[in-house]
Design brief:
MFS_trans_sf, transmembrane helix, transport, membrane, cell inner membrane
């Protein structure tokens, strides 16, 4: 492998207020997602789409973005500045999101969702690459910048519920459109850092060159297991808001329930090192899988047992286990067993696994909800069990030693 090219004199100069500007980028970046994930299915239902159509509209973009995102992030690496690609993609997202203002036929909404997924999904990895360039070049603190994304996602959950409780689901496209507009304005002040010296984490070139070296049993079993456990959440993401509304829970409380899951996730990030830092990655993932299974058993029982909204808040607390531990465990595994020059390929393979299996289960979730309602959560239990079995296979083929730091 050839040595990295030296930084130019311009690249050695830290842009003014770099951390503040990246914090603003992350804050505006996650507002559209914090609105889309919990409330877009409600808008689809309000427009008359049935559960199977909703599942297709949600799942089809997931299949597409697994292919297109690595290509666009690789394009960003070859551009004169990744910030310019970020701005262009944000402008395209703003323009395409206006398509939801058209007459919402099934064909139009599906077409808009597919096109929007292509230009929307790369926002986060490109922003991550800009932030990580600042970490490498100037010693910036990634966590202090990225935390504003989690904060804004939480705020979007809460504010979206508040707005919808007064306007109804028809406000969702306007909220997403305005959020993209705000993100575009802030994107104009994104730090200009020139070309990166290395390919981005999702570079198609890196994946092609390095992936064969990662095709060992431990990494593959672990990555696929993580993808399957993550995919068991697809029914939740696609239909829990619709279910909550169907039993009379208001939009504002729906927003609070989604927000509480994010709070639990942030809490796990804060205590992980102190409480779980000494656990093996296999143990962490087993806890995550068990947490997911408990969650899918509990969800259909909360309302029939008379536990009310408080019961749903309790179950949402398990987001800290079934989601946060998965995210942390995956990164811990990659950090311990994958050489630094191959981490980009490792991240890309994990991204593909998560995206592909989540798309498959999302597609299944529509017919499940249509036929069984909230009892469709029970079908997520065997999916999580399959993920746990794969983690078990990974444990049997684990390397004898960790990679050197």
């Amino acid at each position: 492998m050839s040595s990295l090219p030296p930084l130019s004199p311009e690249q050695l100069v830290k842009p003014r207020h770099f951390e503040l500007r990246m914090g603003l980028i992350f804050f505006t970046l996650f507002v559209p997602l914090g609105t889309h994930l919990p409330y877009f299915p409600l808008w689809l239902q309000a427009k008359g789409f049935d559960a199977e159509q909703i599942a297709v509209i949600l799942a089809a973009p997931m299949f597409l973005r697994v292919v297109t995102t690595p290509l666009l992030t690789a394009l960003a690496d070859r551009a004169s500045d990744r910030a310019q690609v970020y701005v262009a993609l944000m402008a395209a997202s703003l323009a395409l999101s206006a398509g939801y203002f058209l007459t919402p036929t099934y064909a139009i909404v599906l077409a808009v969702s597919l096109a929007l997924a292509v230009v929307w999904t790369p926002h986060s990895p490109i922003a991550d690459s800009l932030a990580l360039s600042g970490v490498r070049r100037f010693g910036s603190n990634y966590a202090s910048m990225r935390k504003w994304g989690s904060i804004s996602y939480l705020c979007a959950n809460l504010a979206g519920g508040f707005i919808l409780s007064r306007t109804g689901a028809q406000a969702v496209p306007m909220i997403i459109f305005v959020a993209f507009g705000a993100a575009l304005v802030v994107g104009l002040i994104a730090p200009r850092l020139g070309r990166p010296r290395r390919a981005s984490p999702l570079s198609a070139t890196d994946i092609q060159q390095s992936a064969p070296k990662l095709l060992n049993a431990y990494f593959l079993y672990f990555s696929i297991g993580v993808g399957v456990i993550t995919a068991s959440h697809a029914f939740l993401y696609g239909f829990v808001s619709i279910y909550w509304k169907s039993i009379g829970i208001g939009d504002q409380v729906v927003g609070l329930l989604w927000g509480w899951g994010v709070v639990a996730e942030i809490g796990m990030f804060m205590i992980f090192t102190r409480v779980f830092g000494s656990f093996s990655v296999v143990s962490i993932m087993v806890m995550a899988g068990i947490g997911a299974i408990v969650r899918w058993i509990a969800f259909p029982l909360v309302w029939p047992l008379g536990l009310g909204v408080a019961g749903f808040f309790a179950v949402q607390t398990l987001h800290a286990v079934s989601v946060a531990l998965v995210l942390i465990g995956l990164q811990k595994m990659i950090g311990e067993t994958v050489a630094e020059e191959r981490t980009g390929a490792a991240q890309g393979i994990a991204y593909f696994s998560n995206g592909f299996f989540t798309a498959v289960v999302t597609l299944m979730s529509g017919p499940l909800y249509d036929r069984f309602g909230v009892d469709g959560f029970f079908a997520m239990i065997p999916i999580a069990l399959i993920g746990l079995a794969l983690i078990g296979f990974a444990a049997r083929s684990a390397p004898q030693r960790r990679i050197g730091r």
